[in-house]
Amino acid sequence: MAKERMLQFVTVNREMPEKRPAELRSQDFHEIYRDFAARKAVEQSSRCSQCGVPYCQAHCPLHNNIPDWLRMTALGRLDEAYAISQATNTFPEICGRICPQDRLCEGNCVIEQSGHGTVTIGSVEKYITDTAWENGWVKPTKPEVERTESIGIIGAGPGGLSAADMLRRKGFQVTVYDRYDRAGGLLTYGIPGFKLEKPVVMRRVEQLEASGVHFVMNCKVGEDISFDAIRGQHDAVIIATGVYKMRAVGGPGVGQTGIVQALDYLTASNRKSFGDEVEAFDNGDLNATGKRVVVIGGGDTAMDCVRTAIRQGAVSVKCLYRRDKANMPGSQRETQNAEEEGVEFVWLSAPKGFTGNGAVEGVVVQKMRLGAPDASGRQSPEVIEGADYVEPADLVITALGFEPEELPTLWGVPDLAVTRWGTIKADFRTHQTALPGVFAVGDIVRGASLVVWAIRDGREAADSVEAYLAQPASVAAE
Ligand code: FAD
Ligand code: SF4
Ligand code: SF4
């Protein structure tokens, strides 16, 4: 059998697809990795040792059947690899691009643990589905039976879209509502093109439309239509609205112009890459060109901001983070990419305030050291007294994380129970909320999380909606 094609990790070294040189890639918003050549994908897949208990699969939130699609790729049977891959993942080519694989599948590959370098699972996953698109294997859904029940989904991010896909496959009538003009949620307006090019997202949206998913865009639930009206129009509702309230930075001088929030900044940049007119970008407010930029934060959003600023032609880009590199929440791979592209990291530094006379001129930086571990085991940053200094800045971008909006209040549904963090309370398996027939998925339940978890939730919620609608009406209403 095919085993002899596999287990090549002893003789074949780990190779990622070629990364474009930093000086070239930092001039544009295209993805930074070139495509795997077919021969390379085969070779890299053949490194897998076909583990009987595949830890890669156990640590993939979708439990993708990784060893099987690696084996099919190694054998050149890409159509079968694609069939296996898409059976568990709604957007494999997107996960292949942007999952933090070092923390999920690849970080748990036994070959990695034995010091040979992980199988490049994400790159192969991307390669398989990109090839499937090129060859026309990715087809719109044609349900075997059309069902009359209608499902309303609020939010067109990965959580909402993966639920929509699965529900259409089951034959339900699906309407997705979103306040934005384009679907995709953070895939479209948050994550920059150098990680995920926009046509990759848009072709998925078009495919869903071709599958019969009805999109109602520019429709903000709670303003343009009430939540109750949506509930009244559909047999079940899925809430997939993500988390968008940004944690604010404090300190003297904080209200000045030139201090902006990460998502406003990234959304403006992403809109420009669609060719949209964006006044706040064109007038310079959300544009880093020619500026000394300071980004505050150490997560993935901060990494996306610093690298966007480099591409916009900032004079300098510095990233302030209150812990050290080893304790950063953001992916080490993205941090390395940022360093290669010219970003300077200022570790153990926190903002105390801002200088300037109405327009920001600098960040007052407090130097920190790592003290005793807190309850979570992480070392807490402590201020080093007398070590403050001013970091000059024309544009300060704050990326301190996201919190949920207060949906029960905004939507006038006090019975929609939330946790003490403001996220919607939903059963972790069925995704059912406190309201009958209402389900919730993705970041609005988990807090700021990952695309792959939103996809998992959306797929599971589709099954739960089907089960809910199969119940007698008297039971479902309880
Ligand atoms: P979202 O993607 O946020 O989508 C929610 C949708 O709901 C939006 O389209 C919004 O317009 C809509 N909506 C909200 N309120 C309403 C309303 N009242 N009415 C109508 N529509 C509404 N994850 C990764 O795995 N890898 C990464 O590299 C990565 N990078 C990231 C970079 C940035 C800058 C950010 C902010 C996040 C990143 N994430 C990444 C996290 C990931 O994007 C999210 O976890 C994921 O998108 C959550 O999916 P979701 O469907 O729950 O919500
Ligand atoms: Fe790895 Fe993400 Fe793909 Fe799962 S979905 S195999 S975690 S890249
Ligand atoms: Fe292959 Fe690594 Fe997964 Fe084992 S853990 S099946 S070697 S990819």
TrEMBL record:
Residues 152-458 form the FAD/NAD(P)-binding domain. Pfam families: Fer4_20, Pyr_redox_2. Keywords: 4Fe-4S, Iron, Iron-sulfur, Metal-binding, Oxidoreductase. The keyword Metal-binding applies. GO terms for molecular function: 4 iron, 4 sulfur cluster binding; metal ion binding; oxidoreductase activity. It comes from the Bacteria. Residues 26-136 form the Dihydroprymidine dehydrogenase domain. InterPro entries: DPD_II (IPR028261), FAD/NAD-bd_sf (IPR036188), FAD/NAD-binding_dom (IPR023753), GltD-like (IPR006006), Helical_ferredxn (IPR009051). NCBIfam families: gltD_gamma_fam. This is Dihydropyrimidine dehydrogenase subunit A. The gene is gltD.
